[in-house]
Write a structure and sequence with these properties.
Elements lengths: L3 E7 L4 H10 L4 E2 L2 E7 L4 E7 L4 E6 L1 H6 L6 E4 L1 E2 L2 E2 L1 E2 L1 H13 L4 E4 L8 E5 L3 E5 L2 E4 L2 E6 L4 E6 L8 E5 L2 E5 L4
Antiparallel strand pairs: 1-5, 1-6, 1-9, 2-5, 3-4, 7-8, 10-15, 11-12, 13-14, 14-15, 16-17
């Protein structure tokens, strides 16, 4: 049986609970966690919270889709046009890498057609097709068309010399203008 990635809709604030139940039942899952630095009067603290409210991504067969609805905290699978919404493997990988590499991620609704494919050309030797990756000044954006969101993160150059960031097979170098 072929496994696909699905969006599991959970009760509010039950994302971690559902993800841990999936892990205990040996169901491959992914809960994107956003790390935020919160500055207060006395100190800076780090807060980790789910990036998508009430969403957990799970790799399931079609038979498992109906079985997980009885798990405590699960409301349903997210449907699109009467069928469970299937998320592409490369979008899950992009989310995993983006969440690992960046903090203070913001989400915004995408205005891009689901069938659009970006073609990014950097120099004569590099050609990439797939999700849109936009880098402008110190802002990085990655489009997730099957979910309908764009992830946005700010990158601060280090020591004024620049900062190298990798995304998939693409290495980017950010330099501050001084």
């Amino acid at each position: 049986m072929q496994k696909n990635w699905y969006i599991v809709y959970t009760k509010p604030k039950c994302e971690r609970k559902v993800a841990s139940i999936f892990t205990r039942r040996k169901i491959e899952n992914f809960l994107p966690v956003n790390t935020k630095q919160i500055k207060s009067f006395r100190k800076n603290r780090i807060q980790k919270e789910p990036l998508f409210d009430s969403y957990v991504f799970a790799s399931l067969t079609e038979e498992e889709v109906n079985k997980i609805k009885v798990i405590d905290g699960v409301v349903n699978i997210v449907y699109w046009k009467g069928k469970p919404a299937v998320i592409q493997e490369d979008e899950i990988e992009a989310m995993k890498e983006f969440v690992t590499d960046h903090q203070n991620i913001k989400l915004e609704k995408s205005r891009i057609n689901l069938n659009d494919i970006a073609r990014i050309i950097d120099g004569p030797k590099y050609l990439m097709e797939g999700n849109i990756l936009t880098v402008k000044n110190t802002t990085v954006k990655v489009n997730l068309p099957s979910i309908g969101f764009t992830m946005i993160a700010e990158i601060a150059p280090e020591n004024g010399l620049g900062r190298e960031v990798s995304f998939g097979s693409k290495n980017l170098l950010f330099q501050s203008k001084s």
